[in-house]
Amino acid sequence: MIRVPEVRLVGEEGKMYGIVTIFEARAIAEKEGLDLVEISPNAKPPVVKVIDYGKYKYHQQKLAADAKKKMVVVQLKEIQFRPNIEAHDLETKLKKAHEFLEDGDKIKMVMQFRGRENSYKAAGMEKFKAIIEKVKAFGAVVESEPKMLGPRIITILAPDKKVIAKPKATKPQDKEKSSTP
To answer: What is the pTM of this model?
Structure first.
């Protein structure tokens, strides 16, 4: 309920009625068979509009749904390595990293050291940096530099929006065969 003596009234089609009393505004809305809705309560005087309230609420709901639909959710995917990873296993993990980057997800890369591997952390760090360089070639940006956290080396990579573009699916054009009778 609107509780101010004067309002700036706007009609349904944008027609400006100007500053009128609240009673006149209600009479105009009633005459047109529509509702009186307060659009801008903080303005001096408040702005009210003569509209169909149900239609207005529906429109607001649709706008909120469209905004939610356009929202992009970036996930953080984790890929774990060991310092003595084999070449084929590394290729598989790099292929997965490439897929994650193409989907627009961030990657948390972790190299785990266990047992005797703990005494070779420097060599592990060099190998980890080499792996990061390979992932950078796919179009990744290092968001946090590699750092040692206990028996692990951790870094986070994000897709570089300028470099990574989703490949467009193209179908080969079938050539029409000429049939001979």
So the answer is: 0.54
